[in-house]
Structure formats: structure tokens, C-alpha cells
Amino acid sequence: MLENQVGKRYAEALSGNISDDSQLGVALKNLKDFGEAMKTEKQLLRFFEHPSISTEKKKNVVEELCGRLQIGNKIGNLLVLLNERGKIIFLEKIIEYFEQVVDRRLNQIRIHVTSAHTLTDANIDRLKTALSKILEKTILIDTKVDESLIGGVILRIGDQVADDTIRNRLRILKQTIEKEEVA
Questions:
Q1: Distance between CA atoms of 127 and 113, rounded to whole angstroms?
Q2: At what angle do helices 73-84 and 55-69 cross, to 10 degrees?
Q3: C-alpha to C-alpha distances, 149 to 99, 111, 145, 168, nearest whole angstrom
Q4: Measured between alpha carbons, how far is 121 from 140 in angstroms, rounded to an integer?
Q5: CA proximity to 80, closest of 95, 60, 94, 103
Q6: Which of 12, 44, 45, 133 has the highest Cβ tally under 10 A?
Q7: Which tens digits make up the pLDDT trace of 5-46?
């Protein structure tokens, strides 16, 4: 709960600090790059959580990492501030909420597509066009392959899921047959 409040507060503050919509994508990428470094190097999170390590040493690590990742000043300043306030451990939630703020400001929506086979660029473009007409937003698609689906696709839009896979159809058919056998 606390991490959600912290995430929302800092995401909104960062968004308010970036007036040029064209800079939102860069800011989000910078945040994600830093967050990915934190995930990849598990010792970094423990380092920032450790109470006996001085804030100054932590600040030096933040600045060093920002330099290596070529993170812009606004995000770098935010990361230093998060470090000073002991909130850098909530970075994952801040990124999650900032992504939502960016999507809202840019009138876009992220759609996660899981399919049995790799989708062609033409299929992705058709899907984007169709969903854009329905949702009246710019569509960003993340794709993933799961061969266990046999065929079809799963669309995940926020917390809504549309499952049109052969695996799901077989599951529904199995349930129907089982119900009829019991009756």
C-alpha cells in the first residue's frame, strides 16, 4: 500500500515537472533503464536498503549509474532525491505509475499479445489499426510467444483479458462435455 502511494506521488510529480510531451518517452526509458539495472544487479537493491551505508555513498552510486546509462538531468535529479528520502527502493512502482501517466498524457494504451506463433509485422499492424479504431487511442503492442496455446491469441488490455486460443476453446469444450456426462 505504501509503495503504491509513493509510486503515484512521485510519478505524478515527475509528470508535472515535464511540460513537453515529447520528452515523456525519453524520461520513461531513462527510468526503466535505471530500474532494469536495479533488477539485474540484485546487490544494488540490498545496497540501497542497507541502513549503515551513508546517503552520500548511495548518492555517488546513483550519479555513477546515471552517467553510465546516460540518464538525463530530470530523471537523474529525481533518482538522487529518491535516494535522499530513502524512496529509491520503490522505483519499480514509480516506473509502473509513471508509465500509466505517460500513456494517459499521450492518449495511448499498452496491449500485451500472447500468441502460439510469432506474429508478422503485417498482423501486428492490422491489430493496431483495428484496436485504434475501437479504443480511439494510439496502440502500443508487446508480443510474447507461448506455444502451449496451440493457436489463437490472448489480448491483455490493462486488467481485461480476451482469450481466443485453441487451448481455451478445448478447455471450454471439456467443461461442457463433463457437465453433460454428469447430467
A1: 10
A2: 160
A3: 29, 18, 9, 8
A4: 13
A5: 60
A6: 44
A7: 999 999 999 999 999 999 999 999 999 999 999 999 889 989
